Amino acid sequence: xxxxxxxxxxxxxxxxxxxxxxxxxxxxxxxxxxxxxxxxxxxxxxxxxxxxxxxxxxxxxxxxxxxxxxxxxxxxxxxxxxxxxxxxxxxxxxxxxxxxxxxxxxxxxxxxxxxxxxxxxxxxxxxxxxxxxxxxxxxxxxxxxxxxxxxxxxxxxxxxxxxxxxxxxxxxxxxxxxxxxxxxxxxxxxxxxxxxxxxxxxxxxxxxxxxxxxxxxxxxxxxxxxxxxxxxxxxxxxxxxxxxxxxxxxxxxxxxxxxxxxxxxxxxxxxxxxxxxxxxxxxxxxxxxxxxxxxxxxxxxxxxxxxxxxxxxxxxxxxxxxxxxxxxxxxxxxxxxxxxxxxxxxxxxxxxxxxxxxxxxxxxxxxxxxxxxxxxxxxxxxxxxxxxxxxxxx
Length: 394
Known about the structure:
Helices cover 25% and strands 28% of the residues. With 394 residues, it is α+β, with helices and mostly antiparallel strands. The strands form 3 sheets. Strands 3, 6, 7, 8, 9, 10, 11, 12, 13 and 14 form a 10-stranded mixed beta sheet that branches. Strand 4 and strand 5 form a beta hairpin. Helix 4 runs antiparallel to helix 5. Its EC number is 5.4.99.25. Belongs to the pseudouridine synthase Pus10 family.
């Protein structure tokens, strides 16, 4: 009937019999020897079969296969809806909020997270069993995400609703934004698998823009001449060599990465009695994966050149406050919403913290996890595989 909407369903059947494991292993080994790869799991088998031609399959395995050597039992039969994907962008407007639930040594740190402020309302509307949250990178727990916000994706498992209308997502967006002023969502909409792939494809090419409040702690005060010098260095091509930061050495492989600084703007702030003319605002655009904090303070020489080295004259720099002001990735592309939504609606002032005591705002708990800043490798691509859970390290 034309007035009935069809809903694709997934039927999962699990059969077992005495020799199924040994026969599966033989099949996978033969296919792998032919270049199929994979392993003895459903996804491993799918990986092996995806790259094997019909001719290679027939050469490796009997067609048709031999009958089962014993009785075959149906163990599991499950019917579920196809996955639903909902995307958008979020802005994080406070400095004490992790992106995902922060569990440290089995204990909860902080009362909630960006994920928990966004996901429940969407899961409820879609009548889904659960959801997996992923995003185009993540900011540190003490860093705000401003500007257009950061692209994020929810993968909804077994939704009972076929689709979400534009009116429903608009109302849902308003509900999320009214519930808590720490996180604001925009461009919320249902997306498809192609949009997921577009998000993954753009991850490695995206550019990030930052605004930082810094202090020069050694050498002479910052001058306008220093600002011009830095701008020129970035324009001519500035490449950082950054060893794995000290704060994450316990959980990451020691490596040296090269990242470009695409633009660099330094603005000395008016001096007062407290800082003697040493405060400055730093605005920069970088390749994805650059360690901005380490660029500013040098990380005990593990980032070269550091900001202090570029300024010269024995200067050392500390970072007081940091904001991500843009993730230059135009996503999601659904119905032109992203282009139509005005930036004038983004009410967070990226310079608001610069107008107050720089030491008064960023009072991070001294016993907090030193890795709180980025609970995931900023160099890692967003693995948006529609057929597996989006397992983002929290």
